[in-house]
Design goal:
With 267 residues, the chain is α/β, with parallel strands linked by helices. The protein is built from ten helices and ten strands. The model has no long low-confidence stretch (mean pLDDT 93). Bound molecules: nicotinamide-adenine-dinucleotide.
Length: 267
């Protein structure tokens, strides 16, 4: 494993790849002002994610009201894609990146222009009906979905716990909470994308949240080169071909710019 701090070794590795797949985590969005779990002063210092398990959300209207307050705080800042999101979109536009598998729920890859994005943990840009009494971490709704503003509009009209307009079920952000199963097919879609990659770029993830972190781990274990761009050590560093210790917004843009206008290697 090579350990580096600058972008040049990453550019050299990118130059060898034609089917890059990025695997991203909360760290790629911190430079958009969205805190990861450890950012000082971030939303997670005011809200404990363990309070928002799927079971607690289903059981308590008070938890749901608090969860909507947390979501509103998240969107009030109007987060925008940063240079790292845009660099991955540029790499896709250059025909060198097949897609992004993200743990993030902020939709910033799509906002930056990425078109193939697998959202392992869903999206907070939408809300969905999860049914009246879903059990064992699995939503059981009627199919109602809407943009997140639907919930805020109802809350502004005085409802603290807006219910599904179609069936009266519980409405939740279309994200995967603690204690909630991943949405059907998502892990398979991510594994298929990563299985066809000739380079996996893990960006801004502590690589500690499973089953998500199992995806880059399996890719590396089956011989796909893995590059990790993160500002601290991760448990997968020893499996990686390259570890770049730095900020995603500083490392990715120059590395992508160095290869984006060059012809990709033969596939
Ligand atoms: P994590 O918080 O466990 O790890 C983030 C990693 O990124 C850390 O190792 C941190 O040191 C590093 N980092 C922070 N800023 C960085 C930067 N600018 N450049 C490079 N590295 C940086 O995040 P995770 O691995 O994604 O797992 C946490 C879970 O929390 C995920 O399930 C995710 O869905 C969720 N989450 C999502 C968001 C979001 O959608 N933006 C925000 C917070 C948490």
């Amino acid at each position: 494993m090579d350990k580096a701090t600058g972008w040049q070794p990453l550019a050299a590795l990118l130059a060898t790849a034609a089917r890059v797949v990025a695997f991203t985590g909360a760290g790629i969005s911190t430079e958009s002002g969205i805190p990861d779990f450890r950012s000082p002063g971030g939303v997670w210092t005011r809200y404990d994610p363990r309070d928002f398990t799927f079971a607690k959300y289903v059981a308590s209207a008070e938890v749901r009201a608090r969860a909507w307050r947390m979501r509103r705080e998240f969107w009030q800042a109007d987060p925008q894609p940063n240079a790292a999101h845009r660099a991955l979109a540029d790499l896709e536009a250059a025909g060198r990146l097949r897609g992004v598998v993200t743990q993030n729920i902020d939709g910033l890859h799509q906002a930056a222009g990425s078109t193939t994005v697998v959202e392992l943990h869903g999206t907070s840009r939408q809300v969905m009906c999860i049914g009246h009494a879903p059990r064992v971490g699995t939503p059981d709704g009627c199919g109602f979905r809407s943009g997140y503003r639907w919930a805020f509009d109802h809350i502004d009209d005085g409802e603290t716990d807006p219910r599904c307009p179609q069936c009266g079920g519980i409405v939740k952000s279309a994200t995967v909470s603690f204690g909630q199963n991943l949405f059907p097919g998502v892990l398979d879609a991510a594994a298929a994308l990563l299985g066809d990659a000739d380079l996996v770029l893990a960006v801004g993830s502590s690589l500690q949240v499973y089953p998500a972190a199992g995806l880059p781990a399996s890719a590396a274990a089956t011989g796909t080169p893995l590059a990790i761009i993160n500002d601290e050590a991760t448990p997968l560093d020893a499996l990686a071909s390259l570890v770049v210790r730095g900020r995603a917004g500083a490392v990715l843009p120059p590395a992508v710019a160095a290869v984006a206008c060059r012809t990709a290697p033969q596939q």
